[in-house]
Amino acid sequence: MLFAWLLLSVYQEITEQKDLPAYLNQLYQNLDVYAILLFLVLVLLMLMQWMFEAAKWQMMLRQHINLPIAKAIMMIFSGISFSIATPNRVGEFIGRVLHLPKELRVQATGYTFIGNFAQLIVTCVAGSIGFGLIAGDLATGSLAQFKVIVCLLVYLAPMFTFLLLFIYFKAGVFFNWLSKIKFLQRWEHKLIQLSALSTSLLLNVLFWSVLRYAVFLLQYWLMFRLIGLALDFQQTAMAMSTVLLVLSILPTISLVELGLRWQISILVFAPYTANIFGLTMGITLIWILNMIVPAGFGAISILVKNFSKK
């Protein structure tokens, strides 16, 4: 119901655009060799950003098992296929650990948590900066009625980010605490190993998370160029970082998340573009490219794995 309401509201905003026929005609005329090459670059960037995620996964598991990068990527894709229907993609670890020996699955679940937490920190850092830079435009424009809340969030977002950084580098304390819980004591040894993660490893995971995030922003900018939105990279980076920050905080599942991406993007990008159709189309295409396509490959890899066992 929520997704249907979001879809209807976006549809109404799109149909109210007076220049929509002219934009669609221009979009059709711009379909040339350059557009095809740019789309291929976007596909390569999709593979690159998931390769960075696989590198994080491979690095954390290295002390237990040597994973070829191709296998690590397919494990990541399997995780995506499981995460699609779970709130904030918390089910991702299930698809990843299915490909590992049973004795490594508890540790691998912990590594998934650490990798995702590092990505969340990067999202919050970039989002806090982006939101701080465009808060003035939002408070006097599309979010004028929420000016007080916008100004308050400018200060709360960095504070929340520093809290996440503290928790991240104290992750060992968390896993050590988990090992003391009675029903988890059967995995105490594995949890103690997770509590001994080095600072250098945590920093390397953050580094790969930053690279992945940078590629992600580049994807959006190139997609917006492909569909004819007149946005420069700085505008795209600031606004998209703000959108991703909001999405990382709200509890959603992937289908509803797409509708929220549309609505939040319309509000945040309002100072920079009035082309709602182009904006929502770009958001949707990136979502399909980065989530649905990898999830499809992941589902196939799980089916092949299950079939090979029979």
Structural commentary:
With 310 residues, this protein is an all-alpha fold. It has one domain. 78% of the residues lie in helices and 0% in strands. It contains 13 helices and no strands. It has helices at residues 2-15, 20-29, 33-61, 69-83, 92-97, 105-139, 147-169, 171-178, 188-195, 199-226, 233-249, 254-268, 276-309. Helix 3 (33-61) crosses helix 6, helix 4 (69-83) packs across helix 13 and helix 6 crosses helix 9. The model has no long low-confidence stretch (mean pLDDT 79).
Summarize the main sheet.
Answer: none
* pLDDT < 50 stretches: none
Strand percentage: under 5%
N- and C-termini, Cα separation: 40 Å
Backbone CA Rg: 21 Å
Helix and strand sequence: HHHHHHHHHHHHH
Quickly count the domains: 1
Indicate the structural class: mainly alpha
Topology:
Layout: H1 2-15, H2 20-29, H3 33-61, H4 69-83, H5 92-97, H6 105-139, H7 147-169, H8 171-178, H9 188-195, H10 199-226, H11 233-249, H12 254-268, H13 276-309
Helix pairs in contact: 1-12, 3-4, 3-6, 3-10, 4-13, 6-7, 6-9, 6-10, 6-11, 8-9, 10-11, 10-13, 11-12, 12-13
